[in-house]
Specification:
The structure is a single chain. It contains 8 helices and 7 strands. By secondary structure, the chain is α+β, with helices and mostly antiparallel strands. The chain is elongated and about 85 Å long.
Amino acid sequence: MPTASSADRPSALVTAAALASIGAGAIHATAAGAHSEHRAAVVAFALTAVFQIGWGAVVLVRPSRSVALVGVAGNLAALGGWVLAKTNGIGFVTGLDVQEGPEFADTLAAALAVVAVVGALVVLLPGLSARLSGRQPALVGLATVAALALTVPGMVAAGSHSHAGGHEHGGDAAGHEHEHGTAGEESAAGHEHAGHEATAVAPTPYDPTKPIDLGGVEGVTPEQQAAAENLVAITLWRLPQWSDPKVAEAAGFHSIGDGLTGYEHLIQWDWINDADILDPERPESLVYRVDRDGTRTLEAAMYMLPQGNTLDTVPELGGKLTQWHIHDNLCFSPGEAPKVRGLTEAGGGCPAGLVKFDPVPMIHVWIVPHECGPFAALEGVGAGQIREGEARLCDHAHGA
């Protein structure tokens, strides 16, 4: 009976490459399930998984140059997608359009793709195979075992992937079901608030990387707490799409020129009077921290109500946990991209050439820890004016 020649049998390095590609594909297949709410992401992960698993199986049976070339191209494409997702986000793939830092599962899948590329190069470059042949038995065997051993924990990690610092897509670790719709449209009845009792509990400092818990404030009802937590959750999840100021500016946001204060507000003036409120997909204003070198880091949304609203007509949201404010003393330059140019005069008007806009209620939601909690206003001029008779809110119970 004829036997396969050595040229027809995969080398140990090619075998390791095939298993690595199959392992990376298995992780991507699991990731597709974890991103089930984003069809585009599911399709991207599923196609990558089909290619990597399929190529791994084919190269084990037929380790030819053409198959190897396809493997190099496909796995390099997967690597390129990983690098793009981790550095800028993939804008045309919903669910991968927001930049996220490397995590164990995706980094492992990328590393396995590298192994697959190296193994495929062995087929394309016979000289490389000859130089490595003496080292194959031990090193390649170890690499193969490592690839197989890491694939399972990689799949587990991919299956538990979460966004916004650990908040699961369906709910957080404390059992809160955070509905990811427009926060202004959510009702407390739609928020499964298991475990919240009327009795006082010790407050937990606000940490965006942990499950949201705004309990422990006397006088705040479970419904008010649920509404406040929902707004924080949806903001944490979706606001980072505006992390790059250039992306925000391309969407029509304009700076009001207050960066010298240490915080810079970018406002989308066309969104103030639309029907979307408390929506991180269409936030009226973004707040960036400005470092000494000019670097801008997104830290909060400043949601603004449409013109015609006052501090007496703001929606019920969070009870004592939240506080709305207005800016009734700012003078702006005229034009399509107004900038703050000073404060009003004694009579409440602005100097000639400047304009004062009708003040609208607004509220901050921070996606970073803040000493006065997730709804804190800025200090000084940035704090604005609050309802007469109220004290300035500083939520020490949930302050960082």
